[in-house]
Amino acid sequence: MPELPEVEALVVDLRGRLDGRAIARVDLATFSALKTFDPPLQAVHGAFVDGVHRHGKFLDIEAGGVHLVLHLARAGWIRWRDEVPKVPPKPSNKSPLAARIVLDDGSGLDITEAGTRKSLAMYVVRSPADVEGIARLGPDPLSDDFTPATLSAILDAAGRAQLKGVLRQQGTIAGIGNAYSDEILHVARMSPFAPASGLDDEARQVLYDAIRSTLGDAVRRSVGHGAADLKGEKKAHMAVHGRTGETCPVCGDVVREVSFADSSLQYCATCQTGGKPLADRRTSRFLK
């Protein structure tokens, strides 16, 4: 799933590509991807691109006084095409193509989603805040407004909720997903299941620094890469996420996994849980 660093890199890349360009049309290949009807999709047709922005994990293309907002969900992506086919795609729920943005010079963007579980969402709105998911976003963790005091208030409000879930909750902190929450907690040397409000002042500062450094470093590595390279860039720099059974680059212990119904997390027991493995929820309760 694209998270804050990848979406930020996409925004920077698209700003350069879309500068001075107009949207000739948007071809909808998967009808279920479009979540709004007013303004209509045609509202961006013929409009010059005024800007490209990020809101958490949402990508926002502003054109003609409205916003074409994309949430790429778990399996969505954007592919740049120097030349798009002249014939619009035939709508099909079986095709990975969800929509195509055609620009005035014949180039464009293919918005795709792999797999059969279709969660990618497209909105045409007058204001980004008209998208419910954007309206309820928490603070951006790389913004100047996200201070140690901001994080401390979030942890207090979360009570005994587990740190992993707090970091991933978009209404609490915007832009962090499954992968970077694993990485942040590894850098902070904290258990994914530690209670949020149980951290003392020193631990809260450590977590704050881990959030800012992990995401900031990922953005710096990602910006400048085209969309085609971002997935590989992200995977290559993961220390624990997606590396079950491999060696922790910090201590040399094996990277372990806890699986859920539709996702999993990875961690290092030596670095994060005092050497004590966490039990897999599929077979037993979590070890504290």
UniProtKB/TrEMBL annotation:
Cross-referenced SUPFAM superfamilies: Glucocorticoid receptor-like (DNA-binding domain), N-terminal domain of MutM-like DNA repair proteins, S13-like H2TH domain
Protein's recorded name? Formamidopyrimidine-DNA glycosylase
Q: Which Gene3D superfamilies match?
A: 1.10.8.50, MutM-like, N-terminal
Q: Which residues form the FPG-type domain?
A: 239-273
Q: Which Pfam families match?
A: Fapy_DNA_glyco, H2TH, zf-FPG_IleRS
- PROSITE patterns in the record, alphabetically? FPG_CAT (PS51068), ZF_FPG_2 (PS51066)
Source organism per entry reads: Nocardioides massiliensis
Where does the Formamidopyrimidine-DNA glycosylase catalytic domain lie? 2-120
Q: Which family does it belong to?
A: Belongs to the FPG family.
Keywords for this protein: DNA damage, DNA repair, DNA-binding, Glycosidase, Hydrolase, Lyase, Metal-binding, Multifunctional enzyme, Zinc, Zinc-finger
CDD domains referenced in this protein's UniProt entry, alphabetically: BaFpgNei_N_1
Reactions mediated catalytically: Hydrolysis of DNA containing ring-opened 7-methylguanine residues, releasing 2,6-diamino-4-hydroxy-5-(N-methyl)formamidopyrimidine
The answer, when asked if Lyase is one of the entry's keywords, is yes
Q: Name one GO molecular function term.
A: class I DNA-(apurinic or apyrimidinic site) endonuclease activity
Q: Which SMART domains match?
A: Fapy_DNA_glyco, H2TH
State its Enzyme Commission number(s): 3.2.2.23, 4.2.99.18
Q: Which PANTHER family match?
A: FORMAMIDOPYRIMIDINE-DNA GLYCOSYLASE
Q: Which cofactor does it need?
A: Zn(2+)
Q: Does the keyword Hydrolase apply?
A: yes
